[in-house]
Amino acid sequence: MSSNFVEHKSVPVRLLSYSFILLWLVIAAFPFIWTFWGSFKVELDFFSKENWANAITGVRTFGDTGSAFTADGYRGAWIKEEFWKSVLNTTIVCFFVVCTSLTIGTLGAYALSRSGFRYAFWLLIIALVFRAMPPITLVAGYMLPFFEWGLWGHLWTTIIVLVAINQPFTLWMLHSFFKKIPKDLDESAMVDGCTSFQAFRYVILPVMWPGVITTGLFSFLLAYNDFAVTAMLLSKENQTMVPKIAGFLGTTQTEGNVMFAVAAVVSATVPLFLLVMFFQRQIVSGLTAGAVKG
Amino acid sequence: MKHRTFFWFFLPTALAMLLFIFLPIISVVTQSLFIDHEQVFVEVENCDFFGCKKASMVDNEATEQLRREQPLGRFVGLDNYINRSHLAFTEVAEIWSGSDSVGNFFKQLFNLPLYRALIFTLVFTFTVTPLLIILGFCIAIGVNSLSQKIKGVVIFFSLLPMIVTPLVGSLILFWMIDSRGIIGSSLQLLFDDPDLSLKASATLTWVTLIVYGVWHAAPFAFVVFYAGLQTVPQDTLESAMIDGASRWERIRYVILPHLAPLVTFVALIQLMDNFRVFEPIVGFNASAHATSLSSMIYSDLDGESRLLSSAATSSVLTIIGVVILLFPVLIRTWRDWDRKY
């Protein structure tokens, strides 16, 4: 909105609005800062019976380790509990899910956006229903066949399942991006002698990169953040980060190693933090992509 | 686009969805009609000094074999749907005739697992969605009046609660509200009650989950509304100001109508997403006080005895719920399409 609109605001209104935003920022960001800071303390500081301020100063941490900061939680999680393996698995899963989703998603969404027939509409509606279904409802359907055919527990099974679960969302998002590209563009390319695939590949895709990158980010988030599928379909040694963290809560917590879980949680948040930092504009444009359409 | 070209372009994604979304639905429906085999018993005659006694014993081998040959179990039709852990018709009828007031009826209904999960899911969905829309709208209005320089930073931090993995986000809050964590101990001080624990009572657990839900999803509403605010027609706004409209009247009569379609959009997306609420229940370790439809399926699938048929039945019922919830959206999309083509 224009800046002259701002200048008309009276002082109390402005103060109120600033303090509200400040309050929201604290609510939104403080938990992350707090947990990040606390992950370098010992458990008795982070969960302090005496005084919560111990988590800031690290009294016990100093007593135990001789320094106000300790990387024991990280050491325990990454090395002792082999969190690095889960990080590797998450990397593999996310990479392949994003690549495959985008490849087959762009093809499908392009077709949907260029077909004016009724069935394109019905396919989108079906995709919407699929998008609305909680993933866990499908997991119940995978278990028995996957057990019977020996597909359960492997990384690549999970990758394919996540690709399929991501498809409805990917299709809708890419569809709304493709809609914005004028049809004249590919039609004129085809008049010049391109096949429809060539028109798609050499004329439409180059214009679509921003949309593809944005959709890729959201596919990544869906794969990275998934808990229902990865927790149920991966064997213990193939676990990705999120189910691994959930696993820490059971046994590790009772053994007094809750700081392992805290360290793992912080480790899993860092990539997302960087993602928002570098791709903030794309994420914002992706969130509004569906909305602008109406 | 020709049908033929469409077919080839759409084939890969169609195959993926057919094999891993559509067939699993069929699989879920099928499994919900079957139940695990009962154990096979054999009659054994135990003879000792005092004579012979007949006893029945579990024949482990035969049971194993039967389970291997027919992994689906035995066909029971709709029995899974009407048993106590799902729709529980008999129990509901009993409660209905046995309870004297509506409140009492709901209290007793709460003991049946499916209704318990359904009630929580609906309460969660229909309180979180409006709250997050209101909060998101307020943030958007506030951020919009900030100077250009700090907007970026504010948006960056605002996005964090939404981007973070739901399980991770709920764990972070869970540790803070622990009675030894910063929020938990502050609340104890505030209310002067050293035994106050957000985990102990069902009501407080629900409130915590709802607060988490709003915290997690408000940034989405904020970003959408913020983008919408950039396109508010300045002329209308200025003429409203010249006509003497107050700040509140401008929001009420110019900005809100402009954002109305976006509100519907956010509401629809969030209804879908909140209906599947699941991770916070695991993260907050709240299953003793709150279960959702998704978490109910999860706890059936998790653990030693995988209750596949029970999970499948809950899944089918959940999918039916999703379709009912989506019905207004489907009709709307249908009208949109008719307008365009």
Beta strands of chain B, count: 4
The total of beta strands of chain A comes to 0
Largest sheet of chain B: 2 strands, antiparallel
The helix content of chain A, as a percent range, equals: over 70%
Describe the model.
The complex is a heterodimer of chains A (294) and B (341). By secondary structure, chain A is mainly α. Chain A folds into two domains: 1-28; 81-293, MetI-like fold (Orthogonal Bundle). Chain A has helices at 3-7, 11-38, 43-46, 54-57, 59-65, 72-80, 83-114, 118-132, 135-148, 155-179, 183-191, 196-225, 228-233, 241-254, 258-293. The longest helix of chain A is centred in the last third of the chain and has 36 residues, at 258-293. With 341 residues, chain B is mainly α. Chain B is built from 15 helices and four strands. In chain B, the strands form two sheets. In chain B, strands 1-4 form a two-stranded antiparallel sheet. A two-stranded antiparallel sheet of chain B has the order 2-3. In chain B, helix 6 runs parallel beside helix 10 (202-229), helix 7 (148-163) packs across helix 10 and helix 12 packs across helix 15 (308-340). Chain B is globular. At the A-B interface, helix 2, helix 7, helix 8, helix 9 and helix 10 of A face helix 1, helix 6, helix 7, helix 8 and helix 9 of B.
